[in-house]
Specification:
Layout (H helix, E strand, L loop, with lengths): L3 H17 L10 H15 L5 H15 L9 H7 L18 H26 L10
Helix pairs in contact: 1-2, 1-3, 3-4
Amino acid sequence: MIPNWLREVVAEGLMSFVVLGLPNQPPAETVALTGEMWIKALWKHSQSWDEEQDRIRLEEGFLNLLPILERWPLPKDLLAAIPLRPEQDIYYLEAPAMTEKQRKFNLEQIQKIKAQLKALEIKMSMPKKEKNKNA
């Protein structure tokens, strides 16, 4: 369900565009329908809109467009004008400590892999037997 705050922000933003009387502006009788399409487009773009984080960003996006518009914008123009969300703190889980038994096992596996690689290296560096030229 599309949240009411998103509808409010889009309605206010589109009304600011109407006041500008831009070329390609939808007819007055279709502005409400145009608003619904904008809301659906924004919702489809991201259903994780969060009022606390995104209301101000959407309002700023509309404000960012006002001084640069030369024609009626598309929803993608608004999406490009929206400031990024502030970076969130990222928490990382620390790797669990290895037991001495796990550490020893891992070191043994590394030694086995090294030995296999060395054997492969020796095998690859051996000259190939020449094929019988008379065959």
